[in-house]
Amino acid sequence: MKRSMAILAASVLLLSACGRDDGGDGGTGAPGVTKEACPNAVNKDNGCIYLGTISDLTVGPFKALAVPITKAQEMFWKRVNTQGGIGGYDIDVTKYVRDNKYSPETHTQVYQEIKGKVLAIAQTLGSPTTAAVIDDMRTNKVVATPASWTSLWNFEDVILESGAPYCIESMNAVDYAIETVKPKSVMAVHNPGDYGGDAAAGAKYAAETNKLTFSDVETPPGQENQGRAIEAIVKNKPDLVILTAGPTDTAVIVGEAAARGYKGRFIGTGPTWNPGLIASPAAPALKGLYWQSAPWMPFQTDTPGHKAMRDALGTGIGAPNDGYTAGWVWSYPLKAALTKAAADKDLTRDGLLKAVKSLTTVDYEGMLTGGNYAGDATTGAVRTTVIGAPDDTAPTKIKIIKEAFTGPTAKGYALSKPCFQA
Predict the structure, then answer these.
(1) Among the four residues 77, 115, 122, 375, which has the most C-beta atoms within 10 Å?
(2) Per-residue confidence at 335, pLDDT binned at 50, 70, 90?
(3) Which contiguous run of DSSP H or E holds residue 231?
(4) Where is the Leucine-binding protein domain (predicted)?
(5) Looking at the structure, do residues 305 and 411 belong to the same domain, yes or no?
(6) Could you give the CA distance from residue 46 to residue 212 in angstroms, rounded to a whole number?
């Protein structure tokens, strides 16, 4: 037994002396932080900070947005490395990329695979998928950037949200409709879970605040599942539909409702649109009936951040897509938190979370204002929204018709708990 134990001990020493390839602490004392350079490092003398990515990359309803989101984040951090890195470290967001297929179960599985190998998560896509692991993230102090806008994130210290949450975006959409098309009735048509539920809660609050009739229709993802929602729209003829679904479902709902005589106004929350819809059979209906709300200005906008994004992506990306814009914008707060943690000489999970909680503003290079993670949800929430309309001539096939604004409903809303729970 003693001889066996001695052999085992020697084996452990031999393994620990070998070069690391697992993104472990590498002698730094923090998961995902190594003294060794990143694979394909820009700065060979820097150590490496590994960040994970969990996105909808193959079969889920948001893959057309998720793939460019992931590419933009890769290029964002490449730019950071080209500028010297952060605190003597390059950032790697390519080694631990996983596909969640927009499934909470798959998301949980791949999160568990990588969580011990990364310092933080550069992208966790989806509200219901991220909600499936938020308890573990909180327990283990895993800071993450969400690719979603549920108002739940305004109450989570480990989440670095950017832009107005779905409910505030929907409040602004209703207020804009009141200003322009003057609806008397509002219907929320939405996916289940935090994504659709949060947007519907904002639409309901805005409708009731403005003494408009409100109705609610929950619809599951999948083009074949939209019959009930279409029937409700055609039968009840709401003046305004706040739509919160995937892009292909949007085409089915808007196109079929129009074909059956609906003449009201749709306003879709951010993820409902994809530029490919302009070439779909639903394009005439979308051009006639659909507006798009969003948390920030689109790909072609003239700000230093938008220009840096376009320069970093180059010309080989195909058609412009606001998935790129979202991925780029979402990366700024994590960069700010890592920079603060490095300055504090505490690149650990404790140190990174402490840095997050100290941020009162983030430099988005003109793409957005906000980034107050030190205050409460009401003071920290971003409340601005833009509105666009389908347009063949626009690079992302959406032309902005109302630049960043905050409507009176959202301006006065106290975010005391997540909207879908309020």
Answers:
(1) 122
(2) very high
(3) helix 227-236
(4) 49-369
(5) no
(6) 59
